[in-house]
Amino acid sequence: MTANPILSATDDGSPTTDIYRQFRGLIVSGQLGANERLPTVRQTAADLGVAPGTAAKAYRMLEQDGLVVTRTAAGTRVAESAARLPLTVTRRIRELVAEAQAAGADPDVVIDVLRVAWRAIGGVTSGSTSDEDGTREPTR
Question: Global pTM?
Answer without folding.
Answer: 0.59
